[in-house]
Design goal:
heterodimer; A: alpha/beta; D-Maltodextrin-Binding Protein, domain 2; 2 domains; four-stranded mixed β-sheet; two-stranded antiparallel sheet; 16 helices; 7% strand; elongated; B: alpha/beta; Alpha-Beta Plaits; 12 helices; 28% strand
């Protein structure tokens, strides 16, 4: 046991003190946030900074002022006396971005408006323009019917439906979307970590083998101890990385509200200027999900279980080859086992309590990813999570036994590239 | 009492028998040479002694107890294929390997300092292993082998890749270890390199022990039927004698020849021929045959081929 500890410690310290580990651990969340927010930011900047000038041929004679009132920051509508042909030329010349043709029939609910531009405009542009024009037409027609103000107010009322989840402890605010995202993130994180940490384990085994230092090491410790020490040491490194990230994300979440509130204008939300941050976020319908401790604990446990199961298999494969490329064919079956659950995540999120979801989340090779997704999006009976975890641990014990039998032969085998059949044979050797 | 006894040990890999009913002993405080050509089964035998693999048949006893994890801590093993962790600093490397042998950190650190000093390598302590030359890495690995002060030191091809200065340093230290009461097991296919160091010899061929005993006794048994001569001048007379079938030249260079007398040819027959042909004769010595010649005598003339091929080692099987 103490030998495993010495190996674990050495593998762990060697890695966490490396420059790369520190850089990646600290920078990954920054990159992740950047990756999530840059597209949004770009859209905002692009649309905000780019006001579209639209010349309007208003044959109804009444819509233009309404359009101008509705325009907001996105559009500038200007009246035009020119003919369509003349406007065409000025669009092509770039004098205006485009022109809008409003035939008289639009006020009768027949026919539509047409927007002409050199670029087409794009999907979101089209939607915004349609909404603006529709609103203007709607208001004009309602007024033409002399609809009283009370009725107008009724039409403009939006009813928000709050989703409340009933649990054993009472009711809680439902944040289905938020927890779906949390589930996806956790599932994908385990998926990525199995691949990445598994590859690190495999690389470590291959290095030890090709540098031939392994023969000295196994003349001091049992191959099983070396295998376990290595797998646990790299696992400890992964855990440190994970907890660092969780802490960074936790800090980020705490301040996310403050940061978002900076971008919100209380007046837009119909609140007084000194409204609290909480009130503003609620009015803006922004939920910052808090991860319940139970979910986080299961996440750590399934991360460790999944890592151990797959890392032991990757170690066995690393022991059989002399360079990374030779491992390709051997690791294919493992890669497939990791990929299958990813194909099911969408289904699990949609119907987390269907029979198929329950069964899939109990299968040990899929459980680390699928069970954590289920725990995140729904209330899973404790027996299901517990059983799934027991099966996972049981499978790990089986796989480490098989792996250590392959490993002890593989690390001393040079020359020929073994097939899966050879590996099966090694398991049976005395 | 033997420190190590290998008793009727057999090891098979698939259909090939790597080690075939091998029996020998290593006596405490002596140097045992496990000699034989590549593929004779030396490394396979050592791997069972060091408990890296286990025999299919027979048993290996260390101090009368079957070998196991406990005996691994009593043995230092320098494998034929050298290797260290490239990225680790020399000091960390030695400390880690010593800890794996069960040594306490503080003791290990002290000894690391002593041995690095001894090898004139103190400044290597904080260098990455991959920054060292091959020869320097060999020294580091040798230090790693003897650092835990093992009772049995196993050196597989210890002199391969060492320059003459380091070879003689290594020899001095090996003799010092012996002085200190440690038992040493040499494995080598370069018999001439180790035979003078050995007290006992174990010759292996094709997985079997073909000759086993004290070096002196073995040499005596084969008698003085070899000649070592140094001279100046024409050495064509050697070819003539060889053609007659009275001698066989085993080693020959410009001014030096080693040969064996065949069929009881008297030594003076060669001496007379030499005096008649060479310009000057500096040395003419009737001597015991080298171990490689003894090996050939035991295994047969076919083995000469095996010995001279200093090619790649056989595929190391687990």
């Amino acid at each position: 046991m103490s030998k495993i500890w010495i190996i674990l410690k050495s593998e762990f310290l060697r890695r966490v003190t490396s420059k790369w580990f520190i850089i990646i651990t600290l920078l990954a969340p920054v990159l992740l946030v950047a990756l999530l927010f840059i597209p949004g930011l770009v859209t905002v900047i692009a649309s905000g900074g780019d006001e579209t000038t639209v010349a309007v041929i208003d044959e109804t004679g009444v819509l233009l002022p309404r359009l101008q009132a509705e325009a907001g920051d996105d559009f500038t509508f200007t009246a035009s006396e020119l003919s369509q042909e003349a406007l065409r030329d000025s669009v092509m010349a770039g004098a205006v971005d485009g022109y809008l043709y409003l035939p008289p029939q639009v006020l009768d609910g027949e026919g539509g408006a047409t927007y002409y531009s050199a670029e087409g405009g794009g999907l979101s542009f089209g939607m915004r323009l349609t909404r603006t024009v529709s609103d203007a037409v709607e208001q004009e027609r309602l007024q033409a019917q002399q609809v009283p103000d009370e009725v107008l107010q009724i039409i403009e009322t939006n009813v928000d439906v709050d989703l409340v989840k009933l649990t054993e402890e009472g009711e809680e605010e439902d944040a289905t979307l938020a927890y779906t995202i949390v589930g996806y993130v956790m599932g994908f994180f385990i998926y990525m970590s199995v691949f990445i940490y598994g590859a690190i384990v495999m690389q470590g085994v291959i290095e030890e083998k090709t540098s031939r230092v392994v023969e000295v090491v196994v003349s001091s410790v049992r191959p099983f101890q070396l295998l376990m020490g290595k797998v646990l040491g790299i696992g400890a490194m992964g855990l440190v990385q994970l907890i660092t990230w969780a802490a960074l994300i936790g800090v980020g979440m705490t301040f996310a509200g403050t940061i978002m509130a900076l971008f919100l204008n209380p007046a837009d939300l119909g609140l007084s200027a000194d409204a609290s941050q909480q009130a503003m976020l609620e009015a803006a319908d922004i939920t910052i999900p808090s991860v319940p401790p139970g979910l986080f604990i299961w996440f750590i446990l399934f991360f460790l279980g999944g890592y151990l199961l797959y890392a032991s298999l990757y170690a066995a494969i690393g022991s059989a080859v002399e360079q990374q490329q030779d491992a390709q064919t051997l690791q294919l079956p493992i890669a497939l086992l990791v990929i299958v659950p990813i194909l099911f995540i969408g289904f699990i999120v949609e119907s987390p309590n269907s029979t198929l979801s329950v069964v899939m989340s109990l299968i040990p090779f899929f459980a680390p990813i699928l069970m954590i997704v289920r725990v995140a999006v729904t209330d899973v009976a404790f027996w299901q999570v517990g059983l799934s975890y027991l099966l996972l641990i049981g499978t790990f014990i089986g796989s480490i036994w098989i792996s250590s039998r392959i490993y002890r032969i593989g690390i001393l085998m040079y020359g020929k590239k073994p097939s899966l059949k050879d590996l099966a044979k090694w398991v049976r050797y005395a | 009492m033997a420190l190590l006894s290998v008793e009727n040990v057999t090891k098979r890999y698939g259909k090939t028998v790597a080690v075939d009913d091998v029996t020998f002993e290593a006596q405490p405080g002596r140097i045992l040479g496990l000699l034989g050509p590549n593929g004779a089964g030396k490394t396979s035998t050592i791997r069972m002694i060091t408990y890296i693999t286990v025999p299919d048949e027979g048993q290996i006893l260390f101090e009368d107890r079957p070998v196991g994890p406990w005996s691994q801590e009593q043995m230092g093993y320098l494998p034929e294929e050298r290797g260290l962790y490239k990225k680790l600093k020399v000091g960390e490397q030695l400390l880690y390997l010593a800890e794996l042998k069960g040594l306490a950190r503080s003791t290990a650190k002290e000894r690391i300092r002593y041995w690095l000093d001894r090898f004139d390598a103190t400044e290597w302590h904080d260098m990455k292993t991959e920054e060292l030359s091959k020869g320097m890495q060999q020294k580091v690995q040798f230090i790693a082998t003897i650092l835990p002060e093992p009772r049995l030191v196993i050196l597989d091809e210890p002199f391969s890749g060492l320059d003459p200065i380091n070879s003689s340093l290594l020899k001095d230290i090996v003799l010092e270890l012996k002085e200190d009461g440690r038992t040493i097991l040499f494995a080598s296919h370069r018999m001439e390199q180790v035979e003078q160091l050995c007290d006992d010899i174990c010759l292996m061929s094709n997985g079997k022990i073909v000759l086993n005993g004290a070096l002196r006794a073995i040499k005596k048994r084969f008698g003085k039927d070899s000649i070592l001569m140094e001279f100046d001048g024409d050495d064509a007379f050697l070819d003539a004698l060889e053609a007659e079938g009275t001698i066989r030249v085993t080693n020959r260079s410009l001014h030096r020849a080693e040969l064996r007398l065949l069929d009881g040819t008297p030594g003076r027959r060669v001496l007379e021929a030499a005096l008649a042909h060479v310009d000057d004769l500096y040395r003419f010595q009737l001597t015991e045959p080298p171990m490689s010649e003894i090996f050939v005598s035991v295994v047969g003339e076919d083995a000469r081929e095996q010995l001279s091929t200093d090619g790649a080692p056989a595929v190391a099987a687990a």
